[in-house]
UniProtKB/TrEMBL annotation:
Residues 73-103 are annotated as: Disordered. Its main location: cytoplasm. GO terms for molecular function: heme binding; iron ion binding; monooxygenase activity; oxidoreductase activity, acting on paired donors, with incorporation or reduction of molecular oxygen. Keywords: Cytoplasm, Heme, Iron, Metal-binding, Monooxygenase, Oxidoreductase. It comes from Saccharopolyspora spinosa. This is Cytochrome P450. It is found in: Cytoplasm. The lineage of its organism: Bacteria, Bacillati, Actinomycetota, Actinomycetes, Pseudonocardiales. Belongs to the cytochrome P450 family.
């Protein structure tokens, strides 16, 4: 397949989604996105099951589509909703959380959590994060080299934070990690992914029962007391909400820490800048979010009304793919978008989505990432890869990441 191929006379696209990344360029999005953006910014693609969908590749088109919750549905249970693969259908099709709901129900459910993930609330977690980071760094120093940064830092940081927020038993962290990884992996069979999700949901069902008196002050108890017992949310919906918080609070940030570290190691001149001037770290985090766009299998919608975008008319019943990784590398918005620059003003990126479905946990993710990258290279100024970058294994999952990151210093 080349992106210059025209659509067939029947309107069926010869472009097959998802596209592959270029070998040797694991930190860049698939080159087909840039080629299509230049040739035909809104075009038809064929999905894994042979069904057609519309693909948008320009920043403003992607933002417009993600922001149109009235005419574009996020409800994966709707017939014809587009997905990346059969496993992705198994992962998302049965979800009952607000990410897969449309307004006004989405708005009611999201509001139940808004205060807990507000900037002021998550900043109050910083002392806990600092202490936990110190433990992670000490564990790295005490371990034989090379050290796998994924296991020693990238996973423990967000895992410990979300376990604290939900007041879950820390000794179950391996259980959560295993179930999240198997549920998120596109290499899992649909059956394996569904089973992993069911295990987590069963745990949360037992947890809800344990805290059913609603007398605790932890987040789960408050959700039970204020919303489950009042009938505002069903028990199944609460299970799915807690599963969303576990996955969203852990997986995306873990992959950003690992890939962000790799990106900085692969751009030593940029790394030197943040080592010499720590005040650049917040901006560097925004640039990492833009540059990596790890949520590379999100932005799927189903049109429920006619929508015009990029000179194309999308009809009710049409599937839509609006990938944030395409928007965040649009040269019309970001000068030299394939260049990583910690001094760039990248705050307009769409790494957390756009519109009513914009990531609820973005303030928490920023606090975690800023904490890590303000201290990691100060504590380990000689940090470097212990293997050639060509030997690293990247994830085939809903959230892009890396299996292991062996480092030394």
């Amino acid at each position: 397949m080349t992106v210059s191929e025209p659509q067939s006379a029947t309107g069926v696209s010869k472009y097959h989604w998802p596209f592959e990344r270029k070998r040797g360029c694991p930190l860049d999005p698939p080159p087909a996105l840039a080629e299509i953006r230049e040739a035909e910014p809104v075009t038809r693609v064929t999905l894994w099951n042979g069904e057609p969908a519309w693909l948008a590749t320009r920043y403003h088109d992607v933002r417009a589509l993600l922001g149109d919750a009235k005419r574009l549905s996020s409800d994966t249970s709707r017939e014809g909703f587009p997905q990346s693969s059969e496993t992705a259908v198994a992962q998302r099709g049965g979800q009952k959380n607000f990410v897969r709901m449309d307004p006004p129900k989405h708005d009611r459910h999201r509001l139940m959590l808004t205060a807990d993930f507000a900037v002021k609330q998550v900043r109050a977690l910083k002392p806990f994060m600092d202490s936990m980071l110190e433990q992670c760094f000490a564990d790295m120093e005490a371990s034989a080299k090379p050290v796998d940064l994924v296991k020693k830092l990238a996973q423990p940081v967000p895992a410990n934070v979300i376990v604290k927020i939900l007041d879950l038993p820390p000794e179950l962290s391996d259980f959560f990690l295993d179930r999240v990884n198997r549920w998120m992996s596109l290499d899992s069979t649909p059956e394996e992914s569904s089973a992993a999700g069911a295990d987590a949901l069963d745990y949360f069902d037992r947890l809800i029962e344990e805290r059913r008196d609603g007398r605790g002050e932890d987040l789960v108890s408050r959700l039970v007391r204020n919303h489950l017992l009042t009938g505002e949310i069903t028990r199944l919906e609460l299970q799915h909400m807690l599963h969303l918080l576990l996955v969203g609070g852990f997986d995306t940030t873990a992959n950003m820490i690992a890939l962000g570290t790799l990106t900085l190691l692969e751009h030593p001149e940029q790394l030197t800048r943040i080592q010499e001037d720590p005040e650049l770290v917040p901006g560097a985090v925004e640039e990492l979010l833009r540059y990596l766009s790890v949520a590379h299998h999100v932005g799927f919608r189903l049109a429920v009304d006619e929508v015009e975008v990029g000179g194309r008319c999308i009809h009710a019943g049409d599937g839509v793919v609006a990938p944030i990784m395409a928007a965040n590398r649009d040269p019309a918005v970001f000068v030299e978008p394939d260049r990583f620059d910690v001094r760039r003003d990248a705050r307009g990126h769409l790494a957390f989505g756009y519109g009513v479905h914009q990531c609820l946990g973005q303030a928490l993710a920023r606090v975690e990432l800023q904490a890590v990258f303000s201290r990691l290279f100060q504590r380990f100024p000689g940090l470097r890869l212990a293997v050639p970058v060509e030997e690293l294994r990247f994830k085939n999952a809903l959230i892009y990441g890396i299996e292991e990151l062996p480092v030394t210093w």
